[in-house]
Predict the 3D structure of the following.
Amino acid sequence: MPYNTIKYEVDDRVAVLTFNRADRMNAMSVELCSEVQDAVKKADEDPEVRVVIIKGAGGKAFSAGYDLQDESDDERKGVEWRDRLNHDLQYTYSVWRCSKPTIAMINGYCLGGALEFVQMCDLRLAADDSRFGVVETRFSMGVATMVMPWVVGARCREYIYTGDMFGADEALRIGLVNRVFPSAELEAETMKMAKRISRIALAALQWNKRAINNTFEAMGFQTALQYGVEACSLLDATETPEFKAFEEIRVAKGLSEAIKWRKALFQPFE
């Protein structure tokens, strides 16, 4: 099927899937999420593909997270919102459940839901200028795919509690990313690793991935992530004083003023 929000190419056993919404910082719309799931399935079923790379177009961002234009205040409070969060979980699960190794190639910003998505990939390779953050917590919003405890352990508390953004060196230090490369070399180095992996027998890649995933699932991975959805839906339905104040400013003065107000809350302590 033709895609509107992503690009899909295959290069010598490696499928390259590109978020193609550079004008929106590759924000993950409902349409993009649907197309990504279709493309990952396509790569999984292609006998000529052994590795999948996911990247963002434009150079400024892997992705700024879920597209807020797809959401409404009323939607956050209903049963439909819980369904939407479960839909988001299935989207991030697409790379986890793909039988072949998936590599997130991260340049620029990787925030909110995009950070959740890349953590569901098998490997994460980042440019030295990349920036990460669980920024949704500063908007009184929950984490739809609570995978960070499984990737970085108890260190995740600092990043989830503060909503701080941090750079590639910190991401490497805590084990969030596997490798960091100069921005100009990221694409070539990512493809080199993908081609190296693609020389391994396909059956070996698939059975090793199944065994690794099953280790996490035996420890309660799926149950924990599903509970995360329930917690997220309850938080998002809660009208906190901070969220209410933010929304009042946004409606009266616009989003930029609301963001300035929010930044001012944290500025003395940054």
